[in-house]
Request: fold
Amino acid sequence: MQTDVEQVLQPIEAARGLPNAYYTDGDVHEAEKRSVFFANWAGLGFAKDIANVGDAKPYEFLGLPLFAVRDHDGEVRVYQNTCRHRGMILIAEEIHIKGAIRCPYHSWCYALDGELKATPHVGGPGQNSHPGFDRSKLGLHEVRSHVWRDVIFINVSGDAPAFEDYAADIKQRWQEFEQPQFHAGADSSFSLEVRSNWKLAVENYCESYHLPWVHPGLNSYSRLEDHYNIVEDGRFSGQGTLVYSPMLDDSGESFGTFGGLSEKWDKAAEYLAFYPNVLFGVHRDHSFAILLEPHGVERTVERIELYYAREDDTGPQRAELRRRNSELWREVFEEDVFVVEGMQRGRHGMLYDGGAFSPVMDGPTHEFHRWIAGQFTGG
Amino acid sequence: MLAAHAVDDGAVLSVLYERAADLSELSDDTERACFYLTQAYILALEMGLPYADSLEKRLRRQGRI
Reply:
């Protein structure tokens, strides 16, 4: 008899989706933290949020207290947000560190490279060292990190393949977009909170099957048959369109485009879920990244950041066009909320068996399920 | 000093602690001076103030680091 996970791993015609417990059960969620999020390269935040040397931002990553900081070399570093002394949280809010990170409890101080620099009164009042105390061994615990497309990725377990290898396939696919992109500030950021397991947001994002029903506005200029699935045996899946043609402004005003793109991108745009929790979109004139933050089993925050191909499109002269673009995407993503939340409610139906897939239309979703199942089975 | 603590003004506090250390040294109270020097040093370190180095050297001379 096949187990539930073995059913997921079957060819799409015979497969069933992930069982309900993967969306509703706290124990599975706990196991998922380690098998899916800690063992792989998962999205934590955005490098733009710590733009300057010394900028630091705290995170709760599935209950794990972390902070990211930009060090003196301009690199993003991620540390466990826990003092090596009494375990106090070091950074409680976004701050600019001028010199050292000082624990607010007993004032142990850490450099931006994680070194424990000073331990006041550790040997008694006015005595800042002790023969039996070796502060060189008490630096901050660093978490492996890598920034790609402005997303700060982390590998908590420390034993995932190097990011360049982990992301080799998706980077190869989007090689032409390996070039600077520019964020315009508050008008290019928004977030949505959904009452759903994070995986349903991935699944909805990576398929185009739902577009004519959930996004009827697209039917007039981006028909279902203009889309294609992107399914490779790797760490991403998604969909593309062959008719990207933004109509943001009646006057024909448009954003500048990335340099050196091949002809394909005159009309194409692609949307990929990079497993586990980052959703990317690329177009000839802008891109976006969506970070899915699981806040428990049945709640997810989606952080959306838009980036433009040309730095001069981030200035005030393009503010109205950017506002329209942000609004367009917000409408699309808000249209998805009811299905993502509806699927979550549906997964409390005890007779649901994970669902059957369309052999033609659901390939990207099935690929994601297979990947998730593989994280639990070592596949 | 308490007012500076209340508003978490590390730069001012560091200067005040260093002055307290100077006064303690004048009174030949090395223990108290090193306590205040430590306070001044940590706050200067946190604030990235250039004279953190000189405070560190003073503490090293006293064998306190």
Remarks:
- The longest helix of chain B spans residues 30-47.
- The interface with chain A takes residues 31-35, 37-39, 41-42, 44-49, 52, 59, 64-65 of chain B (CB under 8 Å).
- Residues 44 and 51 of chain B are 7 Å apart (CA to CA).
- Helices of chain B lie at 2-6, 10-26, 30-47, 52-61.
